[in-house]
Amino acid sequence: MAKLTVAAVAFAALLSTTSGSLVARQTAASTTAAAGPDPTAISQCSVSSSTQICKAGTTEFRVVSTPTGTLPSSYTGCHKHATDTYCFFGDGEVQIQPAGVPAATAASTTAAAVTGAPTAVSDCHLHGVTVFCMWGTSEYQVMTTPTNTAASAIPTAFTDCHAHGADTYCIAPNGDDVEIVAEGAESGDSGHTDGEEPQGENCHFHAGVEHCVGAGESESSGTRSCEKVDRDYNIPLRIGLVFVILVTSAFGVYFPIFMIKWMPTKTHTIFLILKQFGTGIIISTAFVHLYTHAQLMFGNECLGALGYEGTTSAIVMAGIFLSFLVEYVGKRMVMKKMASNPSASSRFSPETVTVLVLECGIIFHSILIGITLVVAGDTFFLTLFVVILFHQMFEGIALGTRIAQLGQLSPTEKAAGPTTVEVEQTSSAPNSLNSLKAPNFSLVKKLIIATPFALVTPIGMAIGIGVLQHFNGNDRDTIIAIGTLDALSAGILVWVGVVEMWAEDWMHNDAELLRTGPLVTFLAGLGLISGMIIMSVLGKWA
Predict the structure, then answer these.
(1) Residue 182 pLDDT more than 60?
(2) Is 98 within a domain?
(3) Are 245 and 385 part of one and the same domain?
(4) What parts of the sequence cross the membrane (predicted)?
(5) What average pLDDT does range 332-348 have in this prediction?
């Protein structure tokens, strides 16, 4: 009996050992089946319930942290990090796990799922006015300031991330290259400048004066830099182009003077149309160029807040009044001079006073044009130079047509002849203004009056070259000087352009265009509008 009991106990122990071994083998087999062989690559990737599933043979693997943007259809170069498996795609890598491993296991390793540099960031959102996006569980700040802070206006993702030196940049939906920085890190902003602009700043030009704001900032919301921006300047090029401006300005202002001297009287219509083109040039220069530029100067943040918002308009109004005052006093003096010396030449005519006032208004801003042209950075200099070249030629034509007419009688005045009243006035009062229109203004005198315009912009350029390394267009005193002269010049040209040129030719009782035929009147009006349009278009760059 005892032997039987011992045998039973031994059999039970053997059975227990065998069962335990069998269970262990089954568990190991189950684990092995779940884990599968270590893959070298996975492919045939698809998305199921927001999770990317790929295959290695017949075994399915789950991508623990799915990349954003366009999902890869396969991953290669699979390898081990300790006990975890990672595979490569593009410039990054992701962790993979057998699809049979519980999600909790995947969740516990998510923090380490994405390594290397981001290839794309998504789930973009706002913290205040700053854009942040996600790369896996890591949050990155997008170094740009949105112009529209509505949630629907924020890009959902930035793709094709790449390195510039030690910094990471991604492509925005509009194609812009924007820097991303891991939360808590600082932007290096190195190795990703345009070569011409200071690092971390965006610079552009208003009225030839440089304005800089921080990277990614708009001018209205960004932090304006008022410091001088150091740039490389091609000085030999600037010196050479001084003479180009000189020749162009001289051609513009001298051409009408020689044309009216050598042109047959029957082609007077061409000169009349050219005069109206010049009138349009002057009016557009006053409003689009000078008035607008003065407003930009007085609106510059580097100047600070103005205590009086109407500063620009007040100075323009002062320029208008100053022009009126000079012309009124000048014409009174001319009449007094002629009364005491009836044989005085036509250089004392009221038209001469008007032309001199016009030239002063042009000269004031032409010297500023020369300075601001030269101090513009090389990236903008040639564009601005071409615009100024046309500006000087057209403005020279406008001034030259008025100088050319000094001492001239128009064909309509010659054809009309003196009225009975005029004959009586001439016989009884030789100092009558009608007697001042005798052609007694020599070519030399006209050229002398025109020459300052030809010289003033090149002189401004020479001054600009001299102060090139010291000029700061955002200096407070510089802003006030440029803004004041621009506004004052605008007022002078408004008076001369509207009153002495436009109204004089079209509206006064003795206006020449009140007596011309329909075709000539139409062509003159077309010339007037063309001058306005052309100069206004040039105002986009100058």
Answers:
(1) yes
(2) yes
(3) yes
(4) 235-258, 270-291, 311-330, 447-467, 479-498, 519-539
(5) 70
Q: How confident is the model at residue 469 (pLDDT cuts 50, 70, 90)?
A: confident
- 272 and 412 belong to one structural domain: yes
Within a 13 Å sphere around the CA of 86, how many CA atoms are in the beta-carbon half? Answer: 16
Q: Which domain holds residue 61?
A: 43-115
Q: How sure is the predictor about 28, in pLDDT bands with cuts at 50, 70 and 90?
A: very low
Residue 112 has pLDDT above 80, yes or no: no
Q: What is the DSSP string of 243-303?
A: HHHHHHHHHHHHHHHHHHHHS-GGGHHHHHHHHHHHHHHHHHIIIIIIIHHHHHHHT-GGG
Token pair 């001084």: residue: 242
Answer with the residue of higher pLDDT: 378 or 502: 502
394 and 288 within one domain: yes
What size, in residues, is the chain? Answer: 542
- Using a 10 angstrom Cβ sphere, with 0-12 exposed, 13-18 middle and 19 or more buried, the burial of residue 307 is exposed
Q: Which of 192, 213, 244 marks a domain boundary?
A: 192
Q: Is residue 33 part of a domain?
A: no
Which positions ≥6 away from 408 have C-beta within 8 Å? 260, 437, 439, 441
Specify whether 286 is located in the same domain as 168. Answer: no
Domain boundary among 57, 82, 115: 115
In one-letter notation, the amino acid at residue 291 is Y
H or E stretch covering 322: helix 311-340
Do 363 and 276 fall within a single domain? yes
* Residues 109, 256 within the same domain: no
Same-domain check for residues 121 and 108: no
Average pLDDT over residues 347-357: 79
With respect to residue 333, please indicate whether it lies within any of the assigned structural domains: yes
Answer yes or no: is 207 within a domain.
no
| 88 burial via Cβ count (<10 Å: 0-12, 13-18, 19+) | middle
pTM of this prediction exceeds 0.70: no
What are the structure tokens assigned to 423, written together? 């004959």
Task: Please give the pLDDT value at position 511.
Answer: 84
Cβ–Cβ under 8 Å, residues 223 and 213: yes
The mean pLDDT value of the chain amounts to 77
Whether 372 and 438 map to the same domain: the answer is yes
**CA 145 to CA 217: how far, in whole Å?**
6
Return the sign of the alpha-carbon dihedral for residues 416, 419, 424, 426. Answer: negative
